[in-house]
Amino acid sequence: MATLVAIKSSPLEDAEALQKAFKDAEALHKAFKGWGTDEKSVITILGHRSVYQRQQIRKTYEEKYQEDLLKRLESEISGDFERAVYRWMLEPADRDAVLAHVAIKDGSKGYNVIIEIVSVLSPEEVLAVRRAYHNRYKHSLEEDVAAHTTGHLRQLLVGLVSSFRYGGDEINPKLAKTEADILHESIKEKKGNYEEAIRILTTRSKTQLLATFNRYKDDHGTSITKKLLDNASDDFHKALHTAIRCISDHKKYYEKVLRSALKRIGTDEDGLTRVVVTRAEKDLKDIKEVYYKRNSVHLEDAIAKEISGDYKKFILTLLGK
Amino acid sequence: MATLVAIKSSPLEDAEALQKAFKDAEALHKAFKGWGTDEKSVITILGHRSVYQRQQIRKTYEEKYQEDLLKRLESEISGDFERAVYRWMLEPADRDAVLAHVAIKDGSKGYNVIIEIVSVLSPEEVLAVRRAYHNRYKHSLEEDVAAHTTGHLRQLLVGLVSSFRYGGDEINPKLAKTEADILHESIKEKKGNYEEAIRILTTRSKTQLLATFNRYKDDHGTSITKKLLDNASDDFHKALHTAIRCISDHKKYYEKVLRSALKRIGTDEDGLTRVVVTRAEKDLKDIKEVYYKRNSVHLEDAIAKEISGDYKKFILTLLGK
After folding, report:
1. How many helices (H) and strands (E) does chain B have?
2. Which of A192, B11, B50, B217 has the fewest CB atoms within 10 Å, i.e. is most exposed?
3. How far apart are the CA of B141 and the nearest CA of chain A, in angstroms?
4. Per-residue pLDDT reduced to its tens digit, A196-206
5. How many CB atoms lie under 10 A from the CB of residue A175?
6. pLDDT tens-digit profile of A101-110?
7. Which of B199, B202, B205, B208 to mutate to test the interface with A (most CBs of A within 10 A)?
């Protein structure tokens, strides 16, 4: 089991939290009893607990019933609902390790998930995911990414995964200008100097990269993401595009993921679940606003039309409906 | 100032340690007084204190005299002696960050120092160095390495620096065979498939790599380091060679660094200081044994012949003479 999230609290708060977890574990156990599962209780309880509370419920449940709550959930519920609840129950770094592992196996269509995880999270959060990946898979994340890719794509993905970017706010404007030009040259020609573009995108701090992207727009009359879209025909260019979008404005990026997931014939439940579960306790509220501004439809309403059953109830609960 | 090393201890031990640090700070302050410095006291005190004690002395000195002990030392002593004491006084991860930074500026002749740091330390220790580098230089280590190199050499160095290798003991023997063959093909031809060799060396766990190097020897009749020596004419091949030696047997590697440092006309004091200071509290005793076995001369005697003055006294103190 992954390390629990440690939060400082008073002894009284600890006792109360423990009692609550105990009650939740009991209620869940009751929901599993007999034929069928009381899915409503599962959604009501787990959908309204914080990451810390969920870890405590899992621990308490295991101590009380000598059974892993996650394993029990897997046998009680199924399909997209199961997958969403399972992911929701994992500690965040551990969840991202699982998502990255699945994405590596998915090959070409999983690259965006890997890029998203390591480009949106803070440098210290990425390290936590890499540590969780060690614990689960007895390999390093970069090791598995590298073994499944080649050429420039490998260089870019492994660089993004392995980078421990400086997290400070310092900007070097001269460097932003030089490197905006390098990126421009690199993207312009199809056989450009990708080595340098990869170096810049995988090693510079996010603040410095934002300055570089702004400078690009000022000097070259269009945003670097628009320019890249013209060329985004292969996996490498698509990966470049995704990385830049995740670094420049990850809320806008997530809005697009949701929009595409819902627009598809046969909704992309994995994409939908991923964004809702991973951002619910972070900035899902902002992403909902971006979605509304872009589509003039509330995200909840758009989702409600596309999915159904317990999965729908659970996702809408996480959306705060 | 860098983070202090935290060691658990009882309140009584804490009080005693603090009192000792206080006395040491006073004695050092006295050693700096008047014309000239009492170098003997500096050597006797600092040369016999653990990493934790040195950090405590530095803190106590600053509180008591409103002055950074390191700055004061810089103004009191000079030359190789100063450099050795300064490095000895830094917290290990911070010291390696400084060594790496100097090495990057040194260009081609500094590559081995960078490779040595990130290949000998444990994965978690490498992260600590990368964090210390952020704190000091407001850049990431891989960012500065990448900006100063190109091509395959960049790929190898950045890969070694950025990797967070899995630290477990699992070995996949089949993989060891496949990758021993890939390494063999890659080194054999001058224009080999370096991409794959770089992938293997920068991402696999050290235990797995040892199995691969052993398999190489079994299947190809010679050690991979010997084979590489035949080709080690350019910076890239030299870097490959250094990385493999640091991963296979770092004590043997350090013995060679010391041997070369002493053999040179005009001793390489930086190399000598680096090995003695960084390994003194780790495995310098073993390295001394390896040195004796290889040269039939005690390391202390070899060093005593080549250097002199306070620098010599200090280095011999760290060697336990």
Report:
1. 20, 0
2. B11
3. 9
4. 999 999 999 99
5. 16
6. 999 999 999 9
7. B199
